[in-house]
Design a protein that fits this description.
The chain has 16 helices and 13 strands. The protein has about 350 residues and is α/β, with parallel strands linked by helices. It has two domains: about 190 residues, Glycogen Phosphorylase B (Rossmann fold, 3-Layer(aba) Sandwich); about 140 residues, Rossmann fold (3-Layer(aba) Sandwich).
């Protein structure tokens, strides 16, 4: 429909970012359509997030499923071209750095559909990461770049993005977190998992960490050393289950492997943790607001504000157990203030910009 804003989502990190934008545009009276690529198709990775966040059912689920980067991206592009032709939106909005985002950006560029990117400008400067390729391509093709942190504005400017395309709006993922704070109950998760004292949460799924057998062994050794200090709860993404299992994960008695959790259950678990060990992007941001020390098992991060803010550290698998020991000893001081514009109002700012852009058309 003319004037419609089409949101393209595909993986669980997208849903938390899209929810406040969808709600704010609804309050502004903007017609919307939600297109789910089906990149994350398991109920535990997708459906539960729509329920937890109170999102409307997608207007279209493309059902592309898994596959190599090329296969998945191509399938999404073919299906999206047809969906865009049927919905005829005035603007497509994409989120984050997953394959669905880049596929939508490429299709939009080819058919002349304006594009907005929520979470523009984040950079790890590591082109071996598929997500870094996705971010750069999407930002180049975007008419509206919605930025979550100040350094991202500088990255876009250096890459030649005009100032009038950039909008520093804050972080909509934090909108979702703050809106649901009273639903996050660590004690319920403790009771469910039989956790009596302090515990750690780990999430590990990056290809560089779990696809290579030697890297997977290093992660299992790391988890073993951490679990000697306190129990570790590991909600395990399907991607890492086989490789970490083959590396000996099942032999670690104090590592409790659980299925992927819904949004409320997972953040409840994180909120009660003494430390989080992760290779995820979004969790670095969520722990920043929750006041939970975060150790990121990567050589770089596209979210350096979490490092400079003092809530997150980059570690190797060898360094992580020692860093956990320091946190447990009380050597981790958390800042008193939040990063700029991480105030729960990013969705409103994004909606205002989009509504004004639509009116100007």
């Amino acid at each position: 429909m003319p004037g419609t804003v089409a949101h393209v989502v595909g993986a669980r990190p997208n849903f938390m970012k899209a929810a406040p934008v969808i709600r704010a545009l609804e309050r502004a009276g903007v017609a919307q359509a939600i297109i789910h690529s089906g990149q994350h198709y398991d109920a535990a990775m997708s459906d539960v997030f729509f329920r937890d966040l109170g999102l409307p059912e997608p207007d279209r689920n493309l059902g592309v499923g898994s596959g190599s980067h090329a296969v998945q991206t191509a399938a999404i592009m073919v299906a999206l071209e047809q969906a865009f032709g049927e919905f005829r939106p005035a603007l497509a909005v994409v989120y984050g750095d997953v394959n669905s985002t880049t596929a939508a950006a490429l299709v939009a560029a080819k058919i002349g559909l304006p594009l907005a990117h929520v979470e523009a400008g984040l950079r790890s400067f590591d082109m071996s990461m598929p997500e870094e390729v996705n971010r750069r391509v999407t930002d180049i093709l975007s008419d509206l770049c919605f930025v979550t942190s100040p350094e991202a504005m500088a990255h876009l400017a250096r890459e030649g993005v005009p100032a009038d395309r950039m909008h520093f709006v804050g972080n909509p993922m934090i909108d979702t977190l703050l809106a649901n704070l009273d639903r996050f109950d660590p004690e319920r998760q403790r009771a469910t998992l039989g956790l009596a004292g302090r515990y750690a949460v780990a999430t590990l799924h990056r290809p560089a960490n779990v696809d290579d057998p030697a890297a997977a062994r290093r992660l299992v050794e790391m988890l073993g050393a951490i679990s000697a200090q306190l129990p570790v709860v590991l909600p395990l993404h399907p991607r890492g289950r086989a490789s970490l299992g083959a590396a000996g994960l099942g032999d670690l008695a104090e590592v409790r492997v659980v299925e992927p959790l819904g949004y409320v259950d997972f953040i409840s678990l994180v909120r009660g943790a003494a430390v989080v060990v992760t290779d995820s992007g979004g969790i670095q941001e969520e722990t920043t607001i929750l006041g939970v020390p975060c150790l990121t098992v990567r050589p770089n991060t596209e979210r350096p504000i979490t490092i400079t803010h003092g809530t997150n550290r980059l570690v190797t698998p060898t360094e992580a157990p020692r860093a956990v020991a320091g946190i447990l000893d009380g050597s981790f001081a958390l800042p008193a203030e939040r990063p700029p514009l991480w105030d729960g109002l990013a969705g409103e700012r994004i909606a205002r910009v989009i509504a004004a852009w639509l009116a100007s058309r």
